[in-house]
Write a structure and sequence with these properties.
- The complex is a heterotrimer.
- Helices cover 32% and strands 25% of the residues of chain A.
- Chain A is of the alpha/beta class.
- Chain A is globular.
- By secondary structure, chain B is an alpha/beta fold.
- Chain B contains 13 helices and eleven strands.
- In chain B, strands 1, 2, 3, 6, 10 and 11 form a six-stranded mixed sheet that branches.
- By secondary structure, chain C is mainly α.
- The chains are: A alpha/beta, B alpha/beta, C mainly alpha.
- Chains in contact: A-C, B-C.
- Chains B and C meet through helix 1, strand 1, helix 2, strand 2 and helix 3 of B and helix 11, helix 14, helix 16, helix 17 and helix 19 of C.
């Protein structure tokens, strides 16, 4: 269940932004560092398949032995977490999480169980705008996990949380991906994040 | 997610609606007769609805009353269809039509050819004794339009502001001079406006009116219209707004009387005055009367468009319009009050009884009042008069 | 590209076609008669006779002069007053709650407003020379300003409500205040330039409408010197059928007048722009504060009083028995005119609603798909998006910039040729041409502002672009959708000429009936229709507002 980036390069105006080779084992976190503008978000976009047409991508991305570079975004099963939780305001907490489910089985029950794991068990019917930053981050994580992704990308997901919360949420995320054996790539500025990830590092 | 069910449901309903609307079929030859008639009077509209109910019961025909702001809208429509080559499936079946629109449609081949004589009830109008049912503003109808109702020009005034109304054309002049800004007449584009001019023409040429029943030669025209122009030149500065804003339709005149801006007006339908009072559209102090020097009498008609796909049904409707029942109902004050074109003397007793007048109204023309009627001048005078008026007094809008 | 993306691109192309083609075809249908070709009346050769007779019209110079004067004048006054109103609402908190007061004027059709004004103001003696029917265009300008000020005001408000722009302008404004400028001055110097840039197209639409409007000059204007559009309508309707040819020439001249007016306006923008730059930089801390404040407050009070007076007067009139002009109240109350009116209105009301709901529904769907297509293209192209957007916006405005009189007659001719029997389709299409631009603009800003990361997130969760559209994007803009739908309905409900001409009068709506009755003599019945015409869109807006609230309210616990 590994994620491989094989000679993955993105070019804009005949100028290559980066060329990456990496293999991320299940449950491991790859940290990607780089100055602003070096193409960190572009790398993530390349992996999710949402590059703008000014960019051309070469190389290959292999997930669980299958190449996904030609596969449309919504079929790649690569989850994303952004800086902002981006929860849907017209849905409750529980509905947000259920939104990620692949199949509609026992939605309520599974949601309750998932919320228990992050100590938010009574909040299933709350509206998302009443949640704190840390709670929102947790719900976003649950939603992404609910879709059973084969890989996860993190785009500086903790940078908007204060230091205390940061550590806790980070811990949840990392332990979750480890438990589920999901290869993860994290883009970050923060040295602590890199330390906690305890994995390979790529510098763009 | 409930909201989505509702939303998707609404979208589906909307899509269905659109499908129905946009894919809906034709209105071609059905049992629907499209009657294009001026829609400015609620009374007429209600009468036409009654007619629709009657013919629906008797013949299974429905009438779609297309309410016009102006009869020329229907003329436009037929022209557009003719120019696009639509000669058999037009959207206009029956038109309520008056002099000039009739002349235009007839000369441009927009009307169905002679059909009126074939109607059973047409003989009830006694055309031999009443040639007025065969001419419209002096033009022979050629059987292309059927008479519907009859009118004579009457005047009305607001008794709260006017004690002695003028009874002749000359008295009218004195009245207007003494009461400036309280009188106005519509431009000759409106049939009441041109009729007012004809009335003045006849009244001012008293004793010398033979020429009006002959074609209008330039000399005759100049001779007979001299007193008319002199009269109008003297009249205009004392009219409403000093004659700088001419009314476009007679209905506007009635509104201004209700506003108590104008105090004297005139109309072709004597009964519409008490009708209006009953509807509170005119104050109860209104009184109706006829001019002593005579009134113009006028018949209004209905015609069938040349490209109507429902000509047969339309003829059945017209036949009903000419029936004693329909004509009597139309004459009732509480319905429309439009006089009949039938010769009541010819009718059998039980039919004639339908036309008995019941009750009076203080604002109505007193039943004892005898109106002196004179006939329409020769057709050529209408156009000549109108053009000359516009040349003197303003552009033709 | 997924099939959905291809579909939305196709819809966008269809939308452009829908907006441009009928207008072009219709205008062409006017070109032929203008050059003398009208076989149905026996004119079978191309010649310039019609052109000669048009230019031989007496008082033509006055007519054209009046048209330009009322068009430019009304637009100028409306703009200045709207700016004053926007200014005081922006700068002074207490005023901001008055934002919705002007809404009734916005949704009432032009003809109804003109009628209501006549009811209210015509018997007044001291207005005599100036209102109504004056020869200088004062009444026309007055009525147009009353209708267009709320329009420009609401357009400005929706521009200012965009969050990105709002933050930026708020920042400028606050800096201005802290530098010592009085509130209105700061508004004029720092906020207005950006605002004006963004409402230029609506202003052009107002200008084009003011030049080509028919209903208002018809009801209120002078009969001696009409505006060009009124003259054209009269010629088309005239008993002398040959006048249709110079009428077509007139329609083309009207079109040219619109262009001239737009060019004049643009020229003035340059000149005023120079002066304005000087004004912005002249270090005057209080420039414009007092005059604009007074203008804004007086206009606000004046308009509010006028709206209240119009509504209450028309309302009372519809129930009145006899009412002499001297007294404040009528002699009595009756439901007669309401029962007559409502009985007659059943079918037209149904028709109005069917047309409004279906055309607005189609417009909303088409606009959403076109916007989705645009967002996707923009995402793909990244650069050059704003030029593309500007071109597209211009195309959208074409039906609003070309006078209705010009292309509607030609459109009818085309419809007769192509599908003479599909009445509802014809009317629906002619409504759609007018509804679509407004609906699109009501949706555009909020849709374009959707954070693209929501879509990315949902796609990463496995939702295809179509499902993202339905489950993520639509809910995010739901309030805008509700509002745009209501707006579309209001536009459709107020259409007169399109309904009349496209259906040959066979489909009656409340608006067409109202104009037909306005030709009659019952003020009270007219008042009933005016009120119904105002209530219909109001009810729809209220429903839209309630639904939008319910959509979110359920979630807040």
């Amino acid at each position: 269940m590994a994620l491989e980036l094989i000679d993955l390069s993105v070019t804009k105006d005949k100028h290559a932004l980066f060329n990456v080779n990496a293999r991320i084992e299940p449950g491991k976190v790859l940290s990607v560092l780089g100055a602003s503008g070096s193409g960190k978000s572009t790398l993530l976009n390349a992996i999710t398949g949402q590059l703008e047409s000014v960019f051309t991508v070469q190389g290959d991305i292999v997930l669980n032995g299958k190449s996904i570079i030609e596969v449309p975004t919504y079929q790649r099963r690569v989850g994303v977490l952004f800086q902002d939780a981006l929860l849907f305001e017209h849905l409750t907490v529980g509905e947000n999480i259920a939104f990620g489910f692949q199949h509609r089985k026992n939605a309520k029950q599974s949601v309750a169980q998932l919320l228990e794991q992050v100590e938010m068990q009574d909040m299933q019917h709350r509206s998302v705008s009443s949640l704190s930053g840390g709670q929102q981050a947790r719900v976003a994580l649950l939603r992404t996990m609910a879709s059973e992704p084969k890989a996860i990308l993190l785009d500086e997901p903790f940078s908007k949380l204060d230091t205390q919360l940061r550590a806790k949420v980070r811990e949840w995320v990392f332990s979750t991906v480890k438990a589920q054996n999901i290869p993860t790539i994290m883009v970050t500025h923060d040295a602590e994040d890199v330390d906690a990830a305890n994995g390979d590092i790529i510098q763009l | 997610m409930f909201n989505w069910q509702i939303t998707i449901g609404f979208l589906k309903l909307n899509a269905l609606l659109c499908l129905v609307v946009f894919a809906s079929g034709t209105i071609g030859a059905t049992n629907e007769v499209r009657f294009h008639a001026w829609g400015g009077s609620a009374q007429v509209n209600q009468y036409i609805q009654w007619v629709s109910q009657q013919v629906s019961q008797q013949h299974g025909i429905t009438i779609n009353h297309v309410k016009l702001a102006d009869t020329s809208d229907a003329v436009s429509r037929v022209i557009a269809e003719k120019s696009a080559g639509n000669h058999h499936n037009g959207s206009v079946d029956l038109i309520w039509i008056n002099g000039e629109n009739f002349a235009a449609m007839q000369s441009n081949g927009l009307l169905a050819p002679s059909w009126v004589n074939g109607l059973a009830n047409f003989s009830l109008t006694n055309p031999a004794e009443n040639p007025a049912v065969l001419t419209d503003f002096g033009l022979p109808t050629n059987g292309q339009e059927a008479p519907w109702g009859r009118a004579a020009m009457v005047f009305y005034y607001n008794g709260a502001h006017v004690k002695t109304p003028p009874k002749t054309a000359h008295e009218l002049m004195s009245f207007v001079v003494e009461n400036p800004g309280t009188f106005a007449y519509p431009t000759p584009n409106d049939y009441l406006g041109i009729s007012f001019l004809k009335y003045l023409l006849i009244a001012l040429n008293r004793g010398n009116t033979d020429g009006l029943y002959r074609p209008a030669t330039p000399e005759l025209f100049a001779e007979l219209t001299t007193p008319l122009w002199a009269f109008l030149d003297a009249l205009h500065p004392h009219m409403w707004r000093q004659g700088t804003h001419m009314l476009r339709q007679a209905s506007h005149m009635q509104r201004l009387i209700d506003d108590e801006v104008l105090h004297l007006g005139f109309s072709f339908t004597a009964a519409e005055i008490p009708s209006a009072v009953n509807r509170f559209d005119l104050p109860p102090t209104i009184r109706t009367y006829g001019m002593e020097d005579g009134s113009l009498s006028n018949i209004h008609f209905v015609a069938i468009a040349y490209n109507s796909p429902n000509a047969d049904n339309a003829k059945k409707v017209v036949n009903f319009l000419l029936s004693p029942v329909a004509q009597a109902y139309k004459k009732r004050l509480d319905v429309w009050g439009d006089d009949t074109v039938l010769d009541v003397a010819l009718l059998p007793d039980n039919d004639a009884q339908l036309f008995q007048v019941e009750g009076t109204h203080p604002s109505a023309l007193p039943p004892s009042e005898r109106i002196i009627m004179f006939a329409e001048p020769h057709a050529s005078w209408t156009d000549a008069l109108r053009n000359a008026w516009f040349e003197r007094y303003g552009a033709r809008y | 590209m997924s099939p959905f993306e291809r579909f939305s691109h196709a819809v966008k192309q269809a939308m452009i076609l829908l907006l441009v083609f009928p207008v072009l075809a219709g205008s062409f249908g006017v070109l032929l008669p203008a050059t003398g070709f009208f076989p149905a009346l026996g004119f079978n050769t191309l010649d310039t006779q019609a052109i000669h007779s048009f230019f031989a019209t007496p008082e033509l110079v006055s007519i054209i002069g009046l048209t330009l004067f009322t068009g430019l004048g009304a637009t100028l006054f409306s703009l200045v007053i709207s700016i004053a109103l926007v200014g005081i609402v922006y700068c002074y908190r207490p005023f901001s709650s008055t934002k919705r007061l002007l809404a009734p004027l916005l949704v009432l059709p032009h003809g109804a407003v003109a009628l209501a004004l006549i009811f209210l103001l015509s018997p007044t003696p001291w207005l005599g020379e100036w209102f109504p029917y004056d020869n200088y265009g004062v009444s026309i300008i007055f009525a147009l300003v009353i209708k267009e000020v709320p329009f420009l005001f609401f357009m400005s408000q929706s521009v200012l409500a965009q969050s990105a722009l709002n933050k930026e302008l708020c920042g400028y404004y606050r800096s201005g205040l802290s530098l010592g400028y009085t509130p209105i001055t700061a508004f004029l110097k720092l906020v207005l330039p950006s605002l004006y840039q963004r409402i230029r197209l609506p202003v052009f639409a107002v200008l084009a409408y003011a030049i080509s409007c028919v209903e208002i000059p018809l009801v209120l204007g002078s009969n001696k010197i009409p505006t060009l559009s009124v003259a054209i309508v009269h010629w088309f309707n005239n008993v002398d059928l040959a006048l249709r040819l110079p009428a077509s020439v007139g329609a083309i001249v009207l079109m040219l007048l619109c262009i001239v007016a737009l060019l004049l306006w643009r020229g003035s923008e340059q000149i005023i722009g120079r002066y304005y730059r000087w004004f912005v930089l002249n270090l005057n801390r209080t420039g414009g504060q007092l005059p604009l404040f007074i203008l804004g407050t007086v206009s606000l009070i004046g308009l509010t009083v006028l709206i209240l007076a119009l509504i209450s007067f028309t309302g009372v009139l519809s129930f009145a028995t006899y009412w002499t002009s001297g007294s404040v109240f009528p002699e009595g109350i009756t439901g007669l005119n309401w029962s007559v009116g409502l009985a007659a209105m059943q079918t037209p009301l149904l028709n109005s609603l069917i047309l409004a709901l279906s055309t607005s529904g189609v417009a909303v769907v088409v606009s959403l798909l076109a916007l989705e297509s645009e967002v996707v293209s923009r995402f793909m192209k990244r650069g050059g998006s704003s030029a593309y957007e500007k071109r597209f916006t211009l195309i959208l405005f074409i039906p609003l910039l070309v006078p209705g009189v010009v292309f509607l007659f030609g459109l009818v001719w085309l419809q007769q040729l192509v599908f003479p029997e599909r009445l509802w389709l014809s009317v629906g299409l002619s409504h759609l041409i007018y509804v679509l631009p407004y609906v699109f603009f009501s949706l555009a800003d909020s849709y374009r502002q959707i954070d693209p990361r929501y879509g990315q997130m949902a796609q990463s969760l496995g939702y295809s672009p179509f499902r993202v559209f339905i489950h993520v994007k639509l809910p995010l803009v739901f309030p805008s959708i509700a509002f745009a739908f209501a707006m579309g309905c209001a536009i459709s409900l107020s259409q007169y000429l399109p309904t009349l001409l496209s259906s040959g009068g066979q489909i009656a709506t409340v608006t067409t009936e109202a104009i037909a009755l306005a030709a009659g003599s019952s003020k009270r019945l007219n008042a009933v229709y005016v009120i119904v015409q105002g209530l219909m869109p109001l009810v729809i807006f209220l429903a839209a507002w309630a639904i939008a609230r319910a959509f979110y309210a359920r979630k807040t616990k």
